[in-house]
């Protein structure tokens, strides 16, 4: 049975117990449907071999080899990860375009007696829905939580999400903190996988309620923000956290403790700033690295690198619609979240309420 997906949250998906990605491991790693398990009918090397024979010998010889390889791989899946499923199990299979790979897999499983579904158009159809979602206007009113580097924006957003507010954690989806030192364990997902995660978050929004996002530049690490969310960010009203540099520096030094554990990497990042800062400033920052003065380094980078960039972006785009929340420190983030909630309640976030507030530039 083939199903045609009409949305990312299509109810038809709920009728299956397991979603199986039959593509090669590299295709799965690049992107896949949420929750799908990888059971490739051809490995990357096997797929390349079949493709080469198709072009250089003949389609018939390629299909003959492919059939033998697919049968052997599906047999291993049945004897291995699928061996525990009973007769009532319902799998949904897809490949790149819903063609030969998923068709062969589905035929064999169907002969066993399982009621098998296939996604019409395969991954390509799913990807089209993702692209449509992330390039379309965000359907909920967007409010941006702004603030200079080290203002604890992400942590405050997490507290607001726990209180029931709609929040999209863009840095969490990108697995990157959005700054020079923002790399996270495990690395970033690919662009397509990031967009799929974002599309699912956008799909789940209640259009009648505002959604809070963190101020970002158009890139988070190596990933680009898709057009829909980026245009919403630059047009949204803002709640800006105003925190003294000393408090932000202490907080940042604590939050980036894992980066401080690798002073050579920190020094390398500081050296990468030579094209945009005087040599004596770079040398001063490197002395702070040598002294392991992480709060001092954080404060120096904020004063001379991060903060001026934020200020320039704000001067260029701010339309005055936002609210400023002054925080004396960052010791009590629950109290900070209270202040942001109060500002949100007084903010005119309704759609069409005003012009663009502009981008703050994110953590550069």
UniProtKB/TrEMBL annotation:
GO terms for biological process: tRNA wobble uridine modification. Keywords: Selenium. SMART domains: RHOD. It comes from the Bacteria. NCBIfam families: PRK11784.1-2, PRK11784.1-4, tRNA_sel_U_synt. InterPro entries: AAA_SelU, Rhodanese-like_dom, Rhodanese-like_dom_sf, SelU, Thiosulphate_STrfase_CS. PROSITE patterns: RHODANESE_1, RHODANESE_3. PANTHER family: TRNA 2-SELENOURIDINE SYNTHASE. It holds the Pfam family AAA_SelU. It comes from Paracoccus yeei. Residues 18-135 form the Rhodanese domain. The keyword Transmembrane does not apply. One of its GO terms (molecular function) is tRNA 2-selenouridine synthase activity. This is tRNA 2-selenouridine(34) synthase MnmH.
């Amino acid at each position: 049975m083939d199903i045609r997906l009409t949305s990312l949250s299509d109810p038809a998906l709920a009728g299956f117990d397991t979603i199986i990605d039959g593509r090669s491991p590299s295709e799965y790693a690049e992107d896949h449907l949420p929750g799908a398990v990888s059971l490739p009918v051809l490995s990357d090397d096997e797929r390349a071999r079949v493709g080469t024979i198709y072009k250089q010998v003949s389609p018939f010889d390629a299909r003959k080899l492919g059939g033998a390889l697919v049968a052997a791989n599906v047999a291993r899946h049945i004897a291995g990860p699928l061996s525990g499923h009973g007769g009532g199990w319902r799998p949904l299979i897809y490949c790149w375009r819903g063609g030969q790979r998923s068709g062969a897999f589905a035929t064999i499983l169907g002969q066993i007696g399982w009621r098998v579904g296939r996604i019409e158009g395969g991954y390509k159809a799913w990807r089209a829905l993702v692209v449509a979602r992330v390039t379309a206007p965000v359907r909920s009113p967007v409010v941006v939580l702004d603030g200079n580097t080290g203002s604890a924006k992400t942590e405050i957003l997490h507290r607001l999400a726990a209180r029931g507010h709609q929040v999209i954690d863009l840095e969490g989806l990108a697995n990157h903190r959005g700054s020079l030192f923002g790399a996270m364990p495990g690395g970033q997902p690919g662009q397509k996988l990031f967009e799929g995660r974002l599309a699912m978050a956008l799909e789940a929004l209640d259009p009648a309620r505002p959604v809070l996002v963190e101020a970002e530049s158009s890139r988070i690490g190596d990933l680009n923000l898709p057009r829909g969310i980026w245009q919403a960010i630059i047009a949204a009203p803002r709640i800006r956290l105003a925190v003294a540099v000393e408090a932000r520096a202490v907080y940042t030094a604590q939050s980036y403790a894992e980066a401080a554990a690798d002073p050579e990497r920190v020094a390398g990042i500081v050296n990468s700033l030579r094209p945009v800062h005087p040599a004596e400033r770079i040398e001063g920052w490197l002395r702070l690295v040598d002294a392991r003065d992480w709060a001092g380094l954080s404060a120096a980078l904020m004063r001379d690198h991060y903060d001026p960039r934020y200020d320039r972006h704000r001067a260029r785009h701010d339309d005055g619609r936002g609210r400023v929340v002054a925080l004396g420190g960052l010791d009590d983030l629950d109290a900070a979240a209270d202040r942001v909630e109060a500002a949100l309640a007084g903010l005119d976030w309704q759609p069409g309420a005003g012009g663009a507030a502009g981008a703050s530039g994110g953590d550069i």
